[in-house]
Amino acid sequence: MSEFLYAGLLILVVIAMFNVMIFIHELGHFLAARWRGLKVDRFQIWFGKPIWKKEINGVQYGLGWIPAGGFVALPQMAAMESVEGQNLDEEKLPPVSPLDKIIVAFAGPLFSLLLAVTAAFAVWGVGKPQDAIKSNVVGGVAAGEAADGILEPGDKILKIDGEPVKWFQGRIFDDIMTRIMLTEGDEIDFEIERGGETMTVTTNFNIAETPWYHRRALPRVGIAPAGPVIVGEMAKGEGTSPAERAGFKVGDEVIEVDGKTIYGFAQVNRLIQEKGKDPVILTVVRDREELELTVQPLKPLGEDFEKPMVGVIWDSGAMISSEILHPNPWEQVRDSLRTMWMTIKTISSPSSNVGVDQLAGPIGIAKTKFLLLQEPNGWLKVLAFFVLFNVNLAVLNMLPLPVLDGGHIVMATMEWVRGKPLPARFLEGLQAGFALLLMGFMLYITTKDIGDEVRGKPKERKLVWPELTANPEEKPTS
User: Fold this and answer.
1) Is residue 61, in this structure, part of any structural domain at all?
2) Confidence of residue 81 (pLDDT cuts 50, 70, 90)
3) Residue 476 backbone zone (phi > 0: left; psi -120 to 50: alpha; other: beta)
4) What is the pTM of this model?
5) Full residue range of the structural domain in which residue 98 is found
6) Domains in the chain: how many in total?
7) 11-24 b/e with 16+ CB inside 10 Å = b?
């Protein structure tokens, strides 16, 4: 199968998954409405005027032209003509009880949750891939970043802002990268273990500037994880790279630089850069034997390169641990709820550095699924993501906002307390206003989804290695 056809197949799979989620959610409303005796006007996937429709037993089934969401038109519930269009049947209908309205509104999130649980049982059986960096040790600090001079290679990070951390990446509730991202205020407190002593150090952080049409960058302090430093490949270019001249081979593991113990590839890169053009002695392990290789860093020819390098691409995957887990359905739903709560709490905090612009819209979510499908065990990863997304869909729809199911429940409860329906014109205006706000919000998030894709093509940097001078005492010219 060609790459084009394969990509097309993956896109169809992503679209199908979206529609399954929408269909099941709206099916809950539909079945509950039929059970409680409500008039069902339409059952439509996607908003806007239908591009396809068919009437069966008095119900118009259709597909709208705006690829977002879906609805079941229930004339006896709060009117939604601004989104759904005019009711097809203008006959006078008997009122329904607040309890019936609550049941019908709640059925959608309930069915989304049931779909999540069903998928969770499947994940329990087939497994959930987990790619993680299982180290809480600093493997290097970038020069000039916030942590430079405060954290050091070999520091073991125990807590961030008082919250325990176990891994560098891969455990969303207690990994280093997530805790740095979720930090509030202007500083980050790190409780670390250094030289057998426990201490607390404080850093600020950097947030890279981005164009207005991109999402804001997330906080960073400039640290990298500890892990084996293994030569993955030699950098391609014209001439012979310094690493090749020194006798490096793919698979060599660097354990020392000029006699200094190494914790990660970021530390190696910095030590080499700090040496400038002076020779560097790297101790490597090859076939269980230790070798000392002397390498002469060189600055490739051209204005695109400012610092000398040795021409090695490290195997970053060597520090990643991959395994297949089998969490039970309860664990999956619980973790999804925790993730949802963490997200809502973070973006609603006035001191947070993460805002609503970091949320993903339909395009961003579709892209995530598309990319996951191309990874090893991609189908399993997407299935696990399917659980999370349906739990999120259920929770978000229960928020007490007009247009959402939670808003319908609130209005039905108010009607129950008042003993009579809320004014029809008030409900129509409220629904229409919030519908416009919701559409505007989704449009804003979608602009970020699209904006993140509008990036200039990286300038191709061609490596051209200079020749070494005949006199070894002379410095090589660039």
Assistant:
1) yes
2) very low
3) beta
4) 0.84
5) 3-127+372-422
6) 1
7) eeebeebbeebbbb
